[in-house]
C-alpha cells in the first residue's frame, strides 16, 4: 500500500496535530507499535479516519512516539499533505 508517513517524534500528549490535504484521504494518527502493524498490513488502532475536509485537527491522546499516515485506501491517485504540531 502506498502512503505518506509523517514521523512526529516523541510527544507529551494533548498536542493538536493539523493535517492539510489536497483531496479527501484516510488520515491515521498512530503510536509506533500500531504504525509498525499498519506498515506491515496488520491490525492496528488509530485516531482519525476518512477526512473529507481540510484542515483536519486531531489531539494526541497520550505521551509516546507518534506517526501520521495518509493514504487513499488502495484507490488510484495521489494526495499532497502537510502535517504540523500546533502545541
Describe the structure.
By secondary structure, the protein is mainly β. It has one domain (4-85). 9% of the residues lie in helices and 49% in strands. It contains 1 helix and 7 strands; from the N terminus they run E-E-E-H-E-E-E-E. It has one helix at 32-39; strands at residues 4-11, 16-21, 25-31, 47-51, 56-59, 64-71, 81-85. The strands form 2 sheets. Strands 1-6-3-4 form a 4-stranded antiparallel β-sheet. A 3-stranded antiparallel β-sheet has the order 5-2-7, with no helix packed on it. The longest helix is centred in the middle third of the chain and has 8 residues, at 32-39. The radius of gyration is 12 Å and the shape is globular. The mean pLDDT is 95.
The value of Rg in angstroms is 12 Å
**Low-confidence segments:** none
Major sheet details: 4 strands, antiparallel
Number of strands: 7
What is the percentage of strand-forming residues?
Answer: over 45%
Tell me the strand order in the biggest sheet: 1-6-3-4
Helix proportion of residues, in percent? under 10%
Summarize the structure.
The chain has 87 residues and is mainly β.
What is the topology?
Elements: E1 4-11, E2 16-21, E3 25-31, H1 32-39, E4 47-51, E5 56-59, E6 64-71, E7 81-85
Antiparallel strand pairs: 1-6, 2-5, 2-7, 3-4, 3-6
Amino acid at each position: 500500500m502506498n502512503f505518506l508517513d509523517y514521523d512526529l517524534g516523541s510527544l507529551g500528549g494533548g498536542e493538536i496535530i493539523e493535517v492539510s490535504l489536497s483531496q479527501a484521504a484516510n488520515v491515521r494518527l498512530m503510536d509506533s507499535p500500531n504504525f509498525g502493524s499498519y506498515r506491515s498490513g496488520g491490525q492496528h488502532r488509530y485516531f482519525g479516519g476518512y477526512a473529507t475536509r481540510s484542515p483536519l485537527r486531531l489531539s494526541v491522546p497520550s505521551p509516546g512516539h507518534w506517526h501520521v499516515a495518509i493514504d487513499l485506501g488502495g484507490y488510484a491517485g495521489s494526495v499532497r499533505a502537510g502535517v504540523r504540531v500546533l502545541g
